[in-house]
Amino acid sequence: MQIEAEPGVVLVVAAWMLDPVPCAEMIARGLEPPAYGPRRVGCPGKLAPYLDYLGERITAFPDLSAVRLTREIRERGYEGAYTAVKRFLCAARPADRPKPFEARFETPAGQRAQVDFARFVTVFTDQPEITRIIWLFSLVLGHSRSIFARFVLHQDLQTLLRCHMLAFESIGGVPLEILYDRMKTAVTGEDGEGHIIYNRALLTMAQHYRFLPKACRPYRAKTKEQASRCTLLEWLSDN
Questions:
Q1: What's 67-84 look like in SS3?
Q2: Residue 211 in contact with residue 114, Cβ under 8 Å?
Q3: Is it the case that residue 54 has pLDDT exceeding 70?
Q4: Which CATH superfamily is domain 112-238 in?
Q5: Is the pLDDT of residue 230 over 70?
Q6: CA distances from 207 to 16, 60, 111, 113, 145 (A)
Q7: How far apart are CA 141 and CA 49, in angstroms?
Q8: Residue 221 DSSP code
């Protein structure tokens, strides 16, 4: 088929072995910008129950990646795609947004530590055919940001208590209070008046070591800022 166009266009069509019929139609129409329909951002779907959580997370920490946030909401039951989270973040935080200033959260030496578990999916070199889930226990001191961290295979109660003991031995003492996310091994629920109900085994350990357990408010990332933004944990989680 002969295409009536400049020689350079004919050569490109021939060189790339393109179908000449649609090429001829496009050349006949001339150069025109493509027309796209409006992008559907934030439409109700699988992501809808998690929009408030994502909004609070990126308000507190604007640089959190879509990969990390997808992992966080999947731990809370999200079954949708990563691309939906990425589209939401693109719409919710413009590329030219100003960097917010945050007041550094300080505590006196020995006053507070923060405990968390981070989830990792990995493959061991001795069994490369098996994909495993491992957990990183971390205890971060509020004043110095000194961190004790250890990879474990489970985040059950026995592992939590054992890691506490190893952390206390490593740092050479026990802080006056320890802040927890609402992990089931630490917080079992609330009573009718909204008071936190802690795991009995954790309370027994706290009584023995003389520290006060405290639970974060739900979906309040800033109340647990130090452990969430500790440099080592941030690097490990994003990589």
A1: HHHHHHHHCCCCCCCHHH
A2: no
A3: yes
A4: Ribonuclease H-like superfamily/Ribonuclease H (3.30.420.10)
A5: no
A6: 75, 33, 16, 16, 24
A7: 33
A8: G
